[in-house]
What does this fold into?
Amino acid sequence: MSFQTLITPERLVPHINDPAWRIFDCRHELSDPNVGEQAYREAHIPGAQFLHVDRDLSGAKTGANGRHPLPDPAAFAARLGRCGVSNNTQVVAYDDAGGMYAARLWWMLRWLGHDKVAVLDGGLPAWRQAGYGVTRDTPEIEPASFEWRLSDQPVETDYVVSHLHDPDVLLLDARGADRFRGENETIDPVAGHIPGAVSRPFRDNLNADGRFRSPQDLRKAFASLLGKHRIDNVVAYCGSGVSACHNLLALTLAGFDGAKLYPGSWSEWCSDPGRPIATGSDC
It folds into this structure.
């Protein structure tokens, strides 16, 4: 049996020493990129390795390609191989932010054609709440060969521009509703959202305990947003292509698999003053 969306702590614990499984700690803080790695050194799930959102799950920034551009797929595949991930490996990603960062790794593995990847539901807090231990020990990992093939194609800015007024295309913005409206913007230099986009904060995918809402609840919520839009015409974005992956995971849980990621997201969009922006609650 493989896990392709979520996994519970109870399902994970028997596999922490399983050589066919690899666990990755993806904790991160946008305001302090060193926080996640320091937290990993202090305590993590046994057997887990650390992947840094900036260094491992992102590529080089140019100033015009967003805050977290995708890395070169061959380079990322090589990194996975050094971490012991083969094409038969079950991968589990976790964080302490409701899956906000772990979902980025989930999407990236699917991008490279690897479906055996799941996010730990509730992350490290749920692991600890279940009574399972943590460690400071760094695992010794045997490298593996990972052969990649792109299977989940993201969209580029040109696509968004050319479909800006296309009623068949739906843009879902995963940022908080205040940032969508253009209020309280403290991360990107320009406030607002892409014209025509609909607000869908990724935290709406979670219950109060930080675990994902049921597939039935998610399906009902997304169905009202999607309307008659075909799922392959739905594009998820956020500030920099990270929390948008959370919406993509939630859509998959809800049975709406096939939406696309705009990796550059708002940070890429607003880097060009010639691109239109919208503010307020209107699309």
The longest strand covers residues 21-25. The longest helix spans residues 215-226. The radius of gyration is 18 Å.
